[in-house]
Design goal:
The protein is an alpha/beta fold. It has five domains: 78 residues, Ubiquitin-like (UB roll) (Roll), CATH 3.10.20.740; 153 residues, Alpha-Beta Plaits (2-Layer Sandwich); 138 residues, Fumarate Reductase Iron-sulfur Protein, Chain B, domain 2; 158 residues, FAD/NAD(P)-binding domain (3-Layer(bba) Sandwich); 143 residues, FAD/NAD(P)-binding domain, CATH 3.50.50. Helices cover 29% and strands 15% of the residues. It contains 25 helices and 24 strands. The chain has a five-stranded parallel sheet. Helix 10 packs antiparallel against helix 11. It is elongated, with a radius of gyration of 31 Å. The C terminus is likely disordered. The structure holds iron/sulfur cluster (SF4) (2 copies). The site of one iron/sulfur cluster has 14 residues, from helix 5. The site of one iron/sulfur cluster has 15 residues, from helix 9 and helix 10.
Length: 736
């Protein structure tokens, strides 16, 4: 706590301000709400006054000191914007502009401000300016507008340096550089890496890497902190240029923004790297109640967005989630809140990932939640669709137990066909999450023949403990994850030969590439460019007639359409044929909600509200067969909306860990860009047939920490304080 003696009072442009002793005049002015232009100053860096734009006049002090490096003193009287200062600033700025392209300054649209403080000038600049490639918010341009340039005393001289785009992710165009030195300081002093420096001297001076190495050759961490502080766009993100529609956060930390449930990926990966496994799990649990299940079966869209994927391989984000979930000591519960009972009742139909997630968060908000489940087990597709060798039942049981502990009651073997019956029973809100469990028909002659099954029912029967005999030779038709699961399950049930028949090629298979790879490792035969035509039975065998296909033009899905090859029919014998070409919903009319032609429930994408008041819906019944993480995200949205409907705040977010900051100092790690992604240890293929033991064995601690340390720590970038920006001249001069 500061004492009175530690405080000083001064006057800046006639505004009285009190600040702690040691505060600079610039920071005191910021506190007083007085803007002083700066180019090299950045709040997270040590000021050195190089650009001299922040000069001020101080009564009884000689010269014009730079406010960023002058300490405020008791009784000081400061002027920041006299005509003399304005003229001098313009001169200093002209010096910067002799080598900085300024075609953008002529933009005729720059005076127009958009709604919500979005400055249309920047949009216009990126449209018109041929010299500025950054396509991102330009701090420097706003500064130039504010100070004004006037008639240039010296002509502009193009430096003619090649734009350096040899690296992934970050482009360097030193023609735009104003030598403010922020990137040098950020990289060296704040991050402790130091790959940028001022090179050459005098008028030749520029910023760059030693010996003009690429960032990769310099063992850059690619965190993007340098881009974050560059005021001119001399350093910019390739992603910002390629995807101008993306927000700053989505460009900086795509793994976070690709997670449908919004898990703070950079933070939990960083916490693994720090050995803080319980904090890491708490971070994951802030958004999802199924960390162990997701750590095993999530389709991990985050990894698709991971910036490290542009350098070598993305971080194994999913696997790290499993690593921390497997080490749960329950510490995260310390901060988990449960609000007092509200007396309100919510009915949830379906105990899958969407239903249980919504139920969990609603119970924590104090509502009474009953989940009605048609099967004798909870977990939905995670239980009856995903085989035990990918997701052991004990993992799911533990996570469902925690949901029950939060107050969720599950009624098994209870199919609900009418929402009215629930409202009559006193439920004030209903969440529909019945899933999409009905296997789709192949649509070929003979598919009702004995021995022909659909993938969803086959997996469900096996997962519910039924003894299913698929025989020696099994064909699975389809290319998605259900098809792969059915094929690998058939092998574990004792089939000697399993063939996966798919009408396109491996590249177009919708299944996760690692699942396809695992199936091939297990010697499952992949028959591509073949589609079933007819099934018949004779001599105790099923005969499957297929037709060869070739790829034609892309269809609505963007994949090339399979086109039949005339006269290419061939027949093969099998003991069982499993059609796994998709699943459909089964929505009873009694739900009284609007459905689409394909039978899925129509729901608002933000709130999951349906056409029926008091009824929300989510999961596969709304999206069609999709992902566990998508269903969880829908459950979270619905929980927030239902809570609000019932009179709550709708705020279901919580912070389960206090330790949320990145340590900015990370140091240079030689060879960092080359570090390879760790490999998940697996059960040897020879030990997989005939049992359902888990195939992925989990990472050892050293491997997990190594993988965490491969991360660029992109999240640290969002911790950097934004530089103070010049007020918009359009606003200050009232230009319309
Ligand atoms: S590259 Fe950007 S941050 Fe670095 S010195 Fe140049 S203008 Fe400043
Ligand atoms: S490198 Fe790390 S922080 Fe950056 S996108 Fe990948 S996982 Fe996220």
């Amino acid at each position: 706590m500061l004492h009175m003696a530690d405080m000083i009072k001064l006057k800046i442009d006639d505004v009285d301000v009190e600040v702690a002793r040691g505060t600079t005049v610039l920071k005191a002015a910021q506190k007083a709400g007085v803007y002083i232009p700066t180019a090299c100053f950045h709040p997270d860096l040590t000021p050195f006054g190089g650009c001299r734009l922040c000069i001020v006049e101080i009564e009884k002090m000689r010269g014009l000191p730079t406010s960023c490096s002058t300490p405020a003193a008791e009784g000081m009287v400061v002027k920041t914007n006299t005509p003399n200062l304005q003229n001098l600033r313009r001169d200093y700025l002209q010096l910067l502009l002799t080598e900085h392209p300024h075609a953008c300054l002529d933009c005729e649209r720059r005076e127009r401000c958009g709604p919500n403080d979005i400055c249309l000038r920047n949009v216009a600049v990126t449209e018109r300016c041929v010299t500025c490639p950054a396509n991102q918010h330009c701090e420097f341009q706003r500064l130039v507008d504010y100070i004004g340039v006037g008639e240039m005393a010296l002509p502009y001289k193009f430096r003619g340096m090649p734009v350096d785009d040899r690296d992934p992710l970050i482009v360097r165009d030193y023609n735009l550089c104003i030598l403010c030195g922020r990137c040098v300081q950020m990289c060296a002093d704040v991050r402790g890496i130091g790959i940028y420096s001022f090179i050459k001297r005098g008028i030749e001076s520029t910023v760059g890497t030693a010996f003009n190495r690429t960032l990769k050759e310099s063992s850059c961490r690619f965190c993007g902190a340098c881009v974050e502080v560059c005021p001119t766009g001399a350093l910019f993100d390739k992603a910002a240029k390629e995807h101008p529609e993306l927000s700053r956060e989505a460009v900086a930390v795509p793994c976070h923004y690709k997670c449908p449930a919004g898990i703070n990926v950079p933070l939990y990966v960083y916490q693994v790297a720090q050995g803080k496994y319980q904090d890491s799990l708490a971070t994951v649990r802030e958004k999802v109640p199924f960390p162990g299940a997701l750590g095993r079966v999530c389709i991990h869209p985050c990894e698709g967005g991971c910036r490290r994927g542009s350098l070598n391989d993305p971080i194994s984000i999913r696997v790290l989630k499993r690593f921390v979930a497997d080490r749960d000591t329950g510490e995260w519960k310390k901060y988990s809140r449960k609000l007092p009972a509200t007396g309100k009742k919510v009915a949830v139909i379906g105990a899958g990932p969407a239903g249980l997630t919504a139920g969990y968060y609603l119970a924590k908000q104090g509502h009474g939640v009953t989940v009605f489940e048609q099967f004798p087990v909870a977990g939905g597709m995670m239980r009856v669709g995903i085989p035990d060798y990918r997701l052991p039942p004990a993992v799911l049981d533990n996570e469902i137990d925690i949901i029950k502990e939060a107050g969720v009651e599950i009624k098994f073997n209870t199919r609900i066909d009418s929402v009215d019956s629930l409202f009559t029973q006193g439920y004030q809100a209903v969440f529909l999450a019945p899933g999409a469990h009905r296997g789709m028909k192949l649509g070929v002659e003979g598919e009702e023949t004995e021995g022909v099954l659909d993938g969803a029912s086959f997996l469900r029967r096996v997962n519910l403990g039924e003894k299913v005999n698929a025989g020696d030779k099994v064909a699975v038709i389809g290319g998605g994850n259900v098809a792969i699961d059915a094929a690998r399950v058939a092998l574990r049930l004792g089939a000697k030969e399993v063939s996966l028949i798919y009408r396109r090629t491996r590249d177009e298979m919708p299944a996760s590439p690692e699942e396809v790879e695992a199936a091939l490792e297990e010697k499952i035969e992949l028959v591509i460019l073949a589609a079933p035509l007819k099934i018949s039975r004779s001599n105790g065998q099923l005969s499957l007639v297929c037709q060869r296909m070739e790829l034609g033009e892309p269809d609505a899905s963007g994949r090339r359409r399979p086109v039949p090859v005339k006269g290419s029919e061939f027949a093969r014998d099998f003991s069982t044929i499993i059609g796994a070409i998709g699943q459909a919903t089964d929505i009873p009319a009694g739900f009284q909600v609007k459905t689409s032609k394909s039978g899925i429930i129509e729901a608002n994408a933000d709130t999951m509200a349906t056409s029926h008041a008091g009824v929300w819906a989510g999961g596969d019944a709304v999206s069609g067969p999709a992902s566990v993480i998508g269903a969880i995200a829908a459950g979270r949205k619905a929980a927030g909306a239902i809570d609000k409907y019932l009179g709550g705040s709708g705020e279901i977010d919580e912070e389960l860990t206090q330790d949320r900051r990145f340590t900015m100092q990370c140091g240079l790690v030689e060879g960092f860009p080359e570090f390879d992604r760790v490999k998940m240890p697996e059960l040897p293929v020879a030990q997989r047939a005939g049992n359902f033991n888990e195939v992925e064995l989990g990472l050892e601690e050293t491997a997990a920490v190594f993988e965490g340390r491969r991360c660029f720590q992109c999240g640290c970038r969002l911790q950097i304080t934004p530089a103070p920006e010049a007020p918009c001249i359009a606003r200050s001069t009232d230009v319309k």
